[in-house]
Write a structure and sequence with these properties.
By secondary structure, the protein is an all-alpha fold. It has three helices and no strands. It has a single domain (5-80), classed as Ribosomal protein S20 (Methane Monooxygenase Hydroxylase, Chain G, domain 1, Up-down Bundle). Helix 1 runs antiparallel to helix 2 and helix 2 (42-58) runs antiparallel to helix 3 (63-80).
């Protein structure tokens, strides 16, 4: 339990942000599963790259983590082709 009004407000803000961030991370996870399938469409890969970039820009995931995910995706895609 928060001891001050500002701490209570901060807890409420953190809770709402966590819900939004969790939905973004879940979407990235879903898109990455879709993009790594054998019959992945180019639009799936583009959507995943866009979602990763947006999440990194907003600070939901770290920019190095975003770059690592994109590099792994590119490497896996190059191996398939």
């Amino acid at each position: 339990m928060a001891n001050t009004k500002s701490a209570a407000k901060r807890a409420r803000q953190t809770e709402s942000r966590s819900l939004k961030n969790r939905s973004v991370v879940t979407r990235i996870r879903t898109l990455s599963k879709r993009a790594t399938e054998a019959e992945a469409k180019p639009t799936d890969i583009t959507a995943l790259l866009s979602a990763i970039d947006k999440a990194a820009k907003r600070g939901i995931i770290h920019r190095n983590a975003a770059n690592r995910r994109k590099a792994r995706l590119a490497r896996a895609h190059a191996r398939k082709a």
